[in-house]
Amino acid sequence: MTENQNDSFAINPLFARPGEAKNAPKYVLGEQEMLAETAYHIVHDEAMLDGNPRINLATFVSTWMDERAERLYSDSFDKNAIDKDEYPHTAKIENYCWRVLADLWHAPNPANAIGTSTTGSSEACMLGGLALKRRWQERRSAAGLDTSKPNLIMSSAVQVCWEKFCNYFDVEPRFVPISKEHKVFDGYDLDKYVDENTIGVVAIMGVTYTGMYEPVQEISNALDRIQSQRGLDIKIHVDGASGAMIAPFVQPELVWDFRIPRVVSINTSGHKYGLIYPGIGWVVWREASLLPESLIFKVSYLGGEMPTFAINFSRPGAQILLQYWAFLRYGRKGYTAVQTETINVARYLAREIAKLPDFTLWNDASDIPVFAWLLSENPERRWTLYDLSDRLRMSGWLVPAYPMPVDLTDVIVQRVVIKNGFSMDLADDLLEDIKKQVDYLNTHNHVTNSSTVGFHH
Length: 457
Prior knowledge:
The protein is an alpha/beta fold. The protein has a domain at 70-327: 3-Layer(aba) Sandwich (Aspartate Aminotransferase, domain 2), CATH 3.40.640. Helix content is 36%, strand content 14%. The protein has helices at residues 3-11, 36-47, 67-76, 88-104, 121-142, 160-168, 216-230, 247-250, 318-354, 385-393, 424-443, and strands at 114-118, 151-155, 172-176, 198-204, 236-239, 263-269, 281-285, 297-301, 304-308, 359-361, 370-375, 401-403, 412-417. It has a 7-stranded mixed β-sheet, sandwiched between helices. Strands 10-11-13-12 form a 4-stranded antiparallel β-sheet. A two-stranded antiparallel sheet has the order 8-9. Helix 3 (67-76) runs antiparallel to helix 9 and helix 10 packs across helix 11. The radius of gyration is 25 Å and the shape is globular.
């Protein structure tokens, strides 16, 4: 390269290099290679147009981790978690993690429990549901009874992964509707839904719509009454996607976990209030006998034989290591401090929003750091929560509005999810923007926008 050529490259701005003015191929594979730096910037700039995760108040997923965790992530993202023969220490760390959770959730003997990591709570729920179904099938088959019509009982406010489970695995979903009198599934009228084909009941610790806990003990008490009257012994799976990593630290006196004998399995999302980047979930059974052997495969893979009972196969091992890092980093005291501060921010926001005359709280973040509100009665108002959601989006805030589930679809709520990394200063900024946009909508007597804004688990 001549001196003049070198000078030309030195002063040539990145986006003025030869070829930068061309459009990148989107739907077909390009014929020629591209400079790695150019490809990086094309993808980076495309993703730059996404929302800012830190102010995405729709998602439950972690949007912040310590820089040391990010360093560990980059050190290990090339590890395949399923290859336990090649990465035996990652496999050991996976076992450490679910044993920690078994102890945290009061398994009678954590050493006799069994668990696994998953890609998230959806996969973990699938495994919990499959274990319920398989145990029901095996009991019915041993008694010479029909196994063709299993059903699973859950709230109408259940997360969509449970509807997927029932669809994919041929189980009839039986939804117990929530109402203004029964804001969560609490065991009321449960007797109407249970029969000999019921494989189990799902109780949710942190309903996606509102963040409220379903009272697992009350649901168990209702099932006790059903067993004493009808002889049906129905077990509970707790979907603790969010609450299973909040309740042990913020509400340690609340009995919802393996202290209740009917609770046979619990799942959680490490990438929610487990404080880990996506995607990592966990499912734990109170004892190994509750996971049917017929669901466990012995697989010969890359030089060794290993048991596996996850639905996914190859997947990253980095999040497993991050989860163990978080357990070491925070411990009980640290998790308690982080979760308490997060819930304090949520409750502060709830109190301040409750003071605004246009809003009425549905719940107040007394369970997990999530709460929802609806519009107060005002026949003169011509705007909706969808309009407010759109206005807030203009400032970067993602605050979803949506209808409540079946039997309450006429109730439209708005919900925020507060996560680690969302400070009190950001909460004040959000409140200021909410007040400003409400003033704008009231002043302009805004015409109702019929569009909807989705929300995320």
